[in-house]
Amino acid sequence: MISLSIPIGYIFVDQQTALYILIPLAIIAVVIDVMSKRNNVIHHLLYGYFGKILRPHERKKFVLNGASWVLISASICVWIFPKIVMITAFSILIISDIAAALIGKRFGSVPFLDKSLAGTSAFIISAIIVCTIIGTFTNAPATYYIASYVSSVIGGIVEASSRRLKVDDNLSIPMSVGLVLLLAAWIFQFNGTQSFLNLL
Questions:
Q1: Which residues are within 8 A (CB) of 155 and not within 5 positions of it... i.e. 6 or more apart?
Q2: 55, 105, 109, 141 from 101: Cα distances, Å
Q3: Nearest Cα to Cα of residue 4 among 98, 101, 95, 86
Q4: For 23-57, how does the pLDDT look when each residue is reduced to its tens digit (9 = 90+)?
Q5: What's the rounded Cα separation, in Å, for the pair 34 and 39?
Q6: Three-class SS of residue 116?
């Protein structure tokens, strides 16, 4: 949930400032992550504090942990996407990934792709709620709601396919959501419909 400070903070700063903050943080996180798997002192220090929240695959020698991927992903998304797209995509990543994990573990008896139907449904529903809140606060046009709801479904499918895609979902989710939003915005613009890319 601390990661939610990234899209919220980005509302109040420009792209350049955000990159000046995120890129150094991403580099530091990756260096610490790599060192923790090569240096015993750093390894025991890091795992002593955060070991319980790391997933099994994040403990492997050549796999970056989720915190590193969040900062890498945030840097990439700020760099390539318009502000409203990044904020939407990253808010979905944080809120909906948590919702999918919690509901999927509790009610995930029916499989869907690599996850569960309950978890994927929770992802999509929570993502739609996130988009509705963002759309309301930014006074977004109807095109934003259409595009963001479609991207919520795509994000849910990508999240459910994370194992077979072999890409960390902290990167694959916001990238897929962002690309769908951007593509939809371009289609709407081409057809002369009101764009939402200039929000924020």
A1: 89, 92, 93, 96, 123, 124, 127, 173, 176, 177, 180
A2: 12, 6, 13, 31
A3: 95
A4: 999 999 998 888 877 656 555 566 655 555 555 54
A5: 9
A6: strand
Q: How many CB atoms lie within 10 A of CB 137?
A: 11
**Phi, psi torsion values for 112, nearest 5 degrees:** -145, 115
Is 86:182 a contact under the CB 8 Å cutoff? no
Q: Band the pLDDT of 172: cuts 50, 70, 90.
A: very high
Q: Which residues contact 49 (CB under 8 A, 6 or more apart)?
A: none
End-to-end CA distance of the chain: 22
CA-closest candidate to residue 31, choices 39, 79, 73, 76:
39
| Residue type at position 113 | L
Tens digit of pLDDT for each residue in 86-126?
999 999 999 999 999 999 999 988 999 999 999 999 999 99
For residue 58, name the pLDDT band (cuts at 50, 70, 90). very low
For tokens 């419909």, name the residue: 193
